[in-house]
Design a protein that fits this description.
heterodimer; A: 158 residues; alpha+beta; Ubiquitin Conjugating Enzyme; 4-stranded antiparallel beta sheet; 15% strand; elongated; B: 548 residues; mainly alpha; Herpes Virus-1; 5 domains; 3-stranded antiparallel beta sheet; two-stranded antiparallel sheet; 13 strands; 59% helix; binds zinc ion
Chain lengths: 158, 548
């Protein structure tokens, strides 16, 4: 931490500092998250596409922001890398219950990112955010998986 | 006792106080009578005021705490879960004890942790355990985190009544004691109001009155199938609305038709139909062009392009070669091949259904407007005339209630009449379509149904006009005659006033009875119309004649 970050950190709730330290010291497998230089509530996130999923071999960038009332309110997370997934829309927004009504202040950044990783392994076309993608998934799953793999190759290479 | 009987026997000079008491009870009686749909005359609904609601809520809680031997707080959880149906709570509790308890988050107390220090899993700080709280699960959190948790949940709305432990894997309900201990005063007040409001909002047989600022609730006292309409008048604020869909009262039309009608009336959807039926886009600039009569020669008002309505080709290429200016054979040739048929047929159908809709809509709309006008007139008469009349007749204005009753009846009749057009629009839909699109047309039974429906409507309109005339023109006459003959403020000719009074009360009663019968008849369904109402209407008409 540089001195500017240290000054910022003094303003930050201890919970956020502890979460950040733990994310950096014991990262979850396939996930990295590091706070931005100028805003310690903003995280640059990378998730590796899980094996045996159409996202395998891809590196997906996300942004994660902790709002003022975190942890009472959930973090805001968004994909920055283009991804073909029935629960992610064109803007990268994610349909995940724990990011909305199932949020609990006892959940953490780590649990959120692990849940997103799990969502890549198990897309849920019955709870869609991207309607046409979900339709594709339901009507022609092998075709949709091919498109997802294709997008992974085109957009998610580091 | 009906209004007319009571007034006919009572003296005009009664003590004001006594009269007011009577009119209050009279009103209640009227609402009961007006709205009972059952033969037993049991009221279909009741208006419950704030105190009564609170009593009823307490009573329901007591019935559960008493029988199940649980706290009031837990009883409230169960009652909310089962829509405040006490019997159902009793049944479920004894037949599905474990599942029911789990569903509302009731758990056996977990053992108290032996450690004196624990980490709060929200802020990650360590605290002495005696400064932390938990639900029965013993997941401990610190005071500040509980405060954030409960106030956030309360700000999110009534779902906070079913708040669970912050631990994401735990379903234990958060006891009210924690909420009381941690929520800030404003949030706590909101929480308590949610508790009270739940008795109405989560209750299958209760709804709030829709009147602005009115704090009454309406209780439905009859068996109602899902989505069945029930018109309600709030005796406290006068609001009229449907118990089921909360829209304006709409007997004899079903809630479903009211919903469909509202969508239908949204101007946008019908404009689209109109444009389809009457216009074509200019082949050059796409501006919608309305067809004028007969002539196929169109000129676009925007780009001045001249084209043929039938084939949409350039008009310059028309003339003798295409079979003359009034008969485009390019179109005829295409029509023979069948290219245009589908489009033309669609256009004709759209036009026909639009005209049919306009017929019903215009009449529905006219009565809605007349109803609003009658409301304004009633308010004006109440404000401008009643006091003067009361002075002239030396009668307390509460005694002149019969004039307001007549106007209330007019407003109600306009409402019913207006909905009969929505009724007709849907009930006659198939019949109208059959009449216009098939060679056979309607059967004689169908013709009769339509005839009686339209006859009833016309009859109802006539009886309403009579009442309206009396309440407006004749009332004015009574007042004017008096002021020209004897000067303003002079005592009124009491005999002629009493005659007018009897007349108006009688007319109001007859009209009310007639409209009630009409509504019940239409609700019974269209097929019964001819059989049940065929002879009745003449009788009714005769009754109106005799009262006049
Ligand atoms: Zn805490
Ligand atoms: Zn718990
Ligand atoms: Zn009311
Ligand atoms: Zn309704
Ligand atoms: Zn044009
Ligand atoms: Zn032509």
């Amino acid at each position: 931490m540089n001195s500017a970050q240290e000054a910022q950190a003094a303003q930050l709730p201890r919970r956020i500092i502890k979460e950040t330290q733990r994310l950096l010291s014991e990262p979850a497998p396939g996930i990295s998250a590091s706070p931005s230089e100028d805003n310690l509530r903003y995280f640059n996130v990378m998730i590796l596409g899980p094996s045996q999923s159409p996202y395998e071999g891809g590196v997906f960038k996300l942004e994660l922001f902790l709002p003022e009332d975190y942890p009472m309110a959930p973090p805001k997370v968004r994909f920055l890398t283009k991804i073909y997934h029935p629960n992610v829309d064109k803007l990268g927004r994610i349909c995940l219950d724990i990011l909305k009504d199932k949020w609990s202040p006892a959940l953490q950044i780590r649990t959120v990112l692990l849940s997103i990783q799990a969502l890549l392994s198990a897309p849920n076309p019955d709870d869609p955010l991207a309607d046409n993608v979900a339709q594709h998934w339901k009507s022609d799953e092998p075709g949709a998986i091919r498109t997802a793999r294709d997008w992974t190759l085109r957009f998610a290479q580091s | 006792m009906s209004d007319s009987e009571e007034y006919a026997s009572g003296s005009l000079m009664e003590d004001e106080e006594e009269e007011e008491q009577e009119s209050a009870s009279d009103q209640e009686k009227d609402f009961g009578l007006d709205n009972s749909v059952t033969v037993s005359k049991k009221p279909a609904y009741r208006i419950l005021k704030g105190e009564t609601l609170e009593e009823r809520r307490k009573q329901a809680l007591e019935e559960v705490t008493g029988v199940l031997g649980i706290t009031e707080e837990d009883a409230a959880r169960l009652l909310r879960r089962f829509k405040w149906d006490v019997t159902r709570v009793h049944e479920e509790w004894f037949s599905n004890y474990d599942a029911v308890r789990a569903s509302v988050g009731l758990q056996d107390e977990a053992p108290v942790p032996s450690t004196s220090q624990a980490t709060c899993m929200i802020c990650f700080e360590s605290y002495p355990t005696d400064q932390m709280y938990s639900a029965s699960c013993r997941h401990l959190f610190c005071h500040d985190c509980w405060q954030g948790y409960t106030s956030t949940a309360i700000a999110d709305g009534p779902a906070c009544l079913d708040l669970r432990c912050p631990d994401p894997k735990c379903t234990a309900c958060v006891p009210t004691s924690i909420i009381k201990r941690t929520a800030p005063p404003e949030a706590l007040a909101k929480y308590q109001s949610f508790c009270v409001r739940s008795f109405v909002e989560d209750n299958r047989s209760l709804v709030w009155c829709v009147g602005r600022g009115c704090e009454c609730a309406v209780e439905c006292c009859v068996d109602r199938t899902a989505d069945e309409a029930l018109d309600v008048i709030c005796s406290s604020c006068g609001a009229t609305f449907c118990f089921n869909c909360k829209e304006e009262a709409h007997r004899p039309v079903s809630c479903e038709w009211v919903r469909k009608w509202a969508i239908k009336n949204s101007a946008e959807s019908e404009n689209v139909h109109w444009i389809i039926a009457n216009t074509k886009p200019c082949p050059r600039c796409s501006r919608p062009i309305e067809k004028n009569q007969g002539c196929m020669h169109m000129t676009c008002s925007q780009c001045r392009f001249e084209f043929c309505w039938l084939c949409q080709g350039d008009w310059k290429e028309h003339g003798d070669r295409t079979g003359g200016f009034f008969n485009c054979n390019r179109y005829d040739a295409a029509k023979r091949k069948g290219d245009y048929d589908e489009e033309t047929r669609k256009r004709d159908n759209a036009k026909q259904s639009l005209e049919r809709y306009m017929h019903y809509f215009e009449r529905w709309d006219a009565h809605q407007k007349a109803r609003n006008k009658a409301k304004a007139d009633q308010a004006r008469i109440s404000a401008d005339w009643l006091e003067r009349l009361s002075e002239q007749t030396k009668t307390p204005s509460s005694q002149l209630k019969f004039i307001m009753d007549a106007w209330s009846q007019i407003i109600e009749c306009r409402r019913v009449l207006s909905w009969t057009y929505t009724y007709g629009y849907y009930a006659l839909e198939d019949m109208d379509h059959k009449a216009s699109s098939t060679k056979e047309g309607n059967s004689s039974a169908e013709e009769n149904q339509r005839f009686f429906f339209e006859f009833l409507q016309a009859d109802a309109e006539r009886s309403l006009e009579r009442l309206h005339e009396a309440a407006e023109v004749q009332l004015k006459k009574v007042m004017e005659n008096n002021s020209t003959a004897q000067g303003n403020g002079a005592p009124l000719d009491l005999d002629s006033f009493m005659a007018f009074r009897t007349h108006l009360i009688g007319l109001t009663d007859v009209t009310r009875g007639y409209f009630e019968k009409l509504v019940r008849q239409l609700e019974k369904g269209f097929e019964d119309l001819e059989r049940d109402f065929g002879g009745g209407s003449a009788e009714e008409a005769a009754l109106i004649e005799t009262t006049l």
